[in-house]
Design goal:
single chain, about 100 residues, about 60% helix, elongated
């Protein structure tokens, strides 16, 4: 049996980071107008959090395009940042 053919094989760090980026772009309201982001209760500034994450995503996309390979620590740190921002956005009722 070919070990590379196993369905439970984990992705490399580059693929894992790209999957997190894709999930964040699909899940979080990056295109929502600022007026809608700032309407209603506010637990942390949703606009600033999304700008922060968007900057991080663009930075990683550039690094990946330049051939940089993220470490497992990079993937973990980026994933935790996405989770924290998602929770803050959800607390504001935006997702």
């Amino acid at each position: 049996m070919n070990p590379d053919a196993r369905p439970d094989k984990k992705p490399d760090t580059r693929t894992a980071l790209l999957q997190i980026i894709t999930q964040a772009r699909e899940t979080l309201p990056f295109t929502m107008p600022a007026a809608d982001l700032c309407a209603g209760p506010c637990r942390g500034c949703a606009k600033k959090l999304l700008e922060l994450l968007d900057g991080e995503i663009e930075d990683w996309e550039q690094k990946l395009d330049d051939g940089e390979v993220p470490t497992l620590g990079d993937v973990n740190k980026f994933g935790r940042l996405c989770q924290k921002i998602y929770r803050a956005i959800a607390a504001n009722g935006l997702v």
